[in-house]
């Protein structure tokens, strides 16, 4: 009586050494870092050696409530690794480019761009949306008329 059961791994993002996090609060808001050591159930030690100078995050303690776990993990990162090894593995895994190509980062960049539009630019967006809506409605009417 052997049953056929497929066991699937969970898609949970675990708090683990090597997990890349997005900082949500504090002076480094919006920057990426990786978990280097787990201090306790509420705090972790992070380090963010980004390849772009303006996106680096110095090693410090961070409350998990101020971080969002991303799907990216740096595999085989030793516990409490120094900034040098973390930087090498960060570059080897190409975390910055993976993040930039993710839909999450693209949506964030789009909303930032929208937030910083001037009044005239918002007006131009409104006009373009109206034009596209008109063209779509015209095409739909043509299809309905032929059917």
TrEMBL record:
- Biological process annotations from GO: ribosomal large subunit biogenesis; translation
Q: Name one GO cellular component term.
A: cytosolic large ribosomal subunit
Keyword ATP-binding assigned to the entry: answer is no
Q: Which InterPro entries match?
A: KOW, Rib_uL2_dom2, Ribosomal_eL14, Ribosomal_eL14_dom, Translation_prot_SH3-like_sf
The source's domain of life comes to Eukaryota
Domain KOW, first and last residues per copy: 14-41
Give the family this protein belongs to, as stated in its UniProt record: Belongs to the eukaryotic ribosomal protein eL14 family.
| Role played | Component of the ribosome, a large ribonucleoprotein complex responsible for the synthesis of proteins in the cell. The small ribosomal subunit (SSU) binds messenger RNAs (mRNAs) and translates the encoded message by selecting cognate aminoacyl-transfer RNA (tRNA) molecules. The large subunit (LSU) contains the ribosomal catalytic site termed the peptidyl transferase center (PTC), which catalyzes the formation of peptide bonds, thereby polymerizing the amino acids delivered by tRNAs into a polypeptide chain.
Entry protein name: KOW domain-containing protein
Q: Which organism is it from?
A: Talaromyces rugulosus (Penicillium rugulosum)
């Amino acid at each position: 009586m052997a049953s056929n059961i497929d066991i699937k791994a969970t898609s949970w993002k675990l708090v683990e050494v090597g997990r890349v996090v997005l900082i949500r609060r504090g002076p480094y808001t919006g920057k990426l870092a990786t978990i280097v050591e787990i201090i306790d159930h509420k705090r972790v030690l992070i380090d963010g050696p980004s390849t772009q100078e303006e996106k680096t995050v110095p090693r410090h303690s961070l409350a998990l409530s101020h971080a969002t776990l991303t799907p990216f993990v740096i595999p085989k990162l030793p516990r409490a690794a120094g900034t040098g090894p973390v930087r090498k593995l960060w570059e080897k895994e190409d975390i910055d480019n993976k993040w930039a190509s993710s839909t999450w980062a693209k949506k964030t960049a789009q909303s930032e761009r929208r937030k910083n539009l001037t009044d005239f630019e918002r007006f131009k967006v409104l006009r373009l949306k109206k034009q596209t809506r008109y063209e779509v409605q015209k095409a739909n009417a043509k299809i309905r008329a032929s059917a």
